[in-house]
Amino acid sequence: MICSGIFDVLGVIALEYTREELVIGFGPSVEPLTRLFMSLTGAMLFTHMFGCFLMTLNRYTAVCHPLRHHAIWTASIVNVLLMIDIIVAFAAFIPLYSNNFVYEPCRNVVTVITEVACLILICLAIYAIRQYGNGIKADKSLILVTAINCVLSLLECIYDISFLLNIESESVAFLKWIANQYQAYSFLIMTSNAYSIVLLSGAVRQEILNRWRLPTPTTRLIMPATTIN
């Protein structure tokens, strides 16, 4: 989660730089910097996408499979998954460092699959929380934020599917509206996922504290020796 938040912040910075470059046009003198930020935009968004999927899967197993949750999400498994995510993200965008390339929207099937999977897991986790009833203390504020993120992810998913099916957004009023709002809800998704679950979920905060808490030194009580006459 912390790793995903760091890459989310870097992704937002890179994305805002590229937007300003498209509007202002800094010129060829800073072209290497623009190329770097453009490649970072794609790599950071890839880590964000996979990181959100891992966080969703983590919450799903915590709610629906609590007995197996700690056995599945060990520190070594999490570190391996994060390393694979980072390596694949940067390797996928190596061609952007070449001399000749063209920026164009791509039909990203992986994005659509992960977003749909996140939606399904979120719905299953919310359903499981409601089924437990009073046996579990559900954090209503977290559920509300999750529901909002679910709606935003659904809009982004529709936007990506329109590219996948090669549907012109100008010909459909709803798709045109989604395309016009894309920057707003993509920014909300990038920022809200990074902090909302930490601020609103006591269980997640406790897991983070337990993972990063330093071991407390144990004290030994030495009893004075007694003699029996």
Automatic annotation (TrEMBL):
Protein name, as recorded: Serpentine receptor class gamma
Cellular compartment(s): Membrane
UniProt topology in membrane: Multi-pass membrane protein
UniProt keyword terms in alphabetical order: Membrane, Transmembrane, Transmembrane helix
Gene3D superfamilies: Rhodopsin 7-helix transmembrane proteins
Organism in which the protein naturally occurs: Ancylostoma caninum (Dog hookworm)
Transmembrane segments: 36-57, 77-97, 109-129, 141-165, 185-204
Superkingdom per UniProt: Eukaryota
UniProt xrefs under SUPFAM superfamilies: Family A G protein-coupled receptor-like (SSF81321)
Any Gene Ontology CC annotation: membrane
InterPro entries per the UniProt record, alphabetical: Nematode_SR-like (IPR051119)
